[in-house]
Design a protein that fits this description.
Length: 463
């Protein structure tokens, strides 16, 4: 109560919510990893207002949880312990566009699609893309170093952040890198804040790099014979071209997208796996190369059938087979895992994962899809309709140590792109050494000495 009274010194009544519906809504993300129970929601409108809030939170004290589009899948934006949720919804403007540097200065609450649209209006391209780009915020994307479907060509969000303005946990405003391409003046703190999940400070503004528009993006969906053929087909195309996306999904994913969204199968021929390949169809020679590779893979028996988009609408429809999976399976309350290995380790990983799944999940439907071009697989276990959710999650959780040990043995990551948040924090040591975790804790203490910034995410709150 004391905290809400003091909040009203900084925020007017349009910037402060405490009603039960808003608390329930803003206190959670897509993970539903815990029960929402925040104290209040505030809507700052400037970096200075965020700074005043952080200073107040240190004095009072109370804890802060940042809130972007709340599309996270690891519980990074859950507020369950009377924290004040800081929504960046009102900081949603693109403040500047620089055509020479090809940069856009965005407030943290700019929606990904808003930036993509601005880029397109300027005949440029913001390449980080995923199914949630219509609601995710740039600030949240940076805080989680979001990946998505174009990483194979364009890399992660990190590659597109030319500058950052942040408010640290001790209430300092840091203006990091100033949009420079070159800047060899010591530690690049910008990189520390990217992927820090709001645990060091809050991003309030970002200078985002744009690039040239790709030409005539064309999509091909291929039906693949088996796991071995996935890698062979993948390699055949990678050797010949530089795709803008290379995605994998299974037969069951196609069936569920059809059931939930009415999207038809790409072709009649049945296939256990599908590869989606997107490329710039910029010359007749490129298209011929793609068609030749397709023929080669078909002759080898790796590819069972295929279809290629002939216009933008067809390309969009083919993308829906992949992009609609996540939302379609949410109907089945999936237990999600987001794993990565080096591309060269994918065959070994898939073979062992198959064995693990057969041994530990014989009773559940297992569905996988992912960004195979980046070595990133999403493993989803679907809940049987008649099973209680908590019991199901508990059962699935028991298998995590086996899966994560396999990931560790292959030097992989237990969270490729969804972040650590609450859901992966107890497993962090499968991917990061004790020495690394200790350095991470040290960094947290330096930027956030009182531990008020998104406490409990990435690490347990220090006891
Ligand atoms: C995806 O690739 O579709 C997203 O990471 C979301 C998900 O894994 O469900
Ligand atoms: Zn993904």
């Amino acid at each position: 109560m004391e905290a809400t009274n003091t909040l009203s010194k900084i925020f007017d009544k349009n910037q402060l919510l405490t009603d039960p519906d808003s608390l329930a809504e803003y206190g959670k993300d897509w993970s539903n990893a815990s029960l929402p129970n925040p104290l209040a929601i505030v809507f700052p409108e400037s970096t200075e207002q965020v700074q005043s809030l952080v200073k107040l939170a240190n004095q009072t004290p109370f804890n802060l949880v940042p809130s972007g589009g709340r599309t996270g899948l690891s519980g990074g934006a859950m507020a369950s312990n009377q924290e004040v949720v800081v929504s960046f919804e009102k900081m949603n403007k693109i403040l500047d566009f620089n055509p020479i540097d090809r940069t856009a200065l965005c407030q943290a609450g700019v929606i990904t699609q808003q930036l993509q649209q601005l880029a397109e209006d300027k005949n440029l391209y913001y390449p980080v893309d995923f199914a949630s780009s219509g609601s995710s915020h740039i600030g949240g994307n940076i805080a989680t170093n979001a990946g998505g479907i174009k990483v194979v060509r364009y890399g992660l969000t990190r590659n597109w952040v030319a500058g950052l303005k942040v408010v640290t946990g001790s209430g300092e405003i840091l203006d990091l890198n100033h949009g420079l391409v070159k800047n060899a003046t010591g530690y690049d703190f910008r990189q520390m804040f990217i992927g820090s999940e709001g645990t060091l400070g809050f991003i309030t503004e970002a200078t985002m790099q744009l690039t040239k528009l790709p030409v005539n993006l064309t999509v091909m969906v291929l039906g693949i014979r088996d796991v071995d053929a996935i890698m062979k087909t993948f390699q055949a195309f990678k050797d010949k071209m530089d795709p803008t996306a290379l995605e994998l999904f299974s037969r069951d994913s196609v069936a569920i997208v059809h059931e939930q969204k009415g999207i038809p199968k790409p072709f009649e021929t049945d296939a256990p796996y599908y590869l989606l390949l997107e490329f710039e169809n910029d010359a007749e020679a490129t298209e011929n190369l793609v068609l030749d590779t397709f023929e080669q893979c078909t002759n080898e028996g790796w590819v069972l059938d295929g279809v290629m988009s002939q216009n933008e609408q067809q390309a969009r429809n083919l993308w829906r087979l992949r992009e609609d999976i996540s939302e379609s399976i949410s109907h089945y309350t999936p237990y999600k895992n987001d794993l990565a290995v080096k591309v060269s380790n994918i065959p070994a990983f898939l073979a062992s994962l198959d064995e693990l799944i057969a041994e530990h999940y014989p009773q559940f439907q297992v569905l996988w899809y992912g960004h195979i071009g980046d070595g990133n697989l999403h493993l989803n276990i679907l809940k049987p309709a008649d099973m209680d959710k908590d019991a199901f999650y508990e059962e699935c959780g028991k298998v995590n140590p086996h899966i994560f040990q396999l990931v560790k043995d292959l030097d992989g990551s237990i969270s490729a792109e969804h972040g650590v948040g609450l859901l992966k924090r107890d497993y962090l040591s499968y991917s990061r050494s004790e020495a690394e975790i200790s350095c991470m804790r040290g960094l947290k203490t330096m930027f956030d000495p009182n531990g008020i910034m998104n406490p409990g995410k990435i690490f347990e709150v220090a006891g």
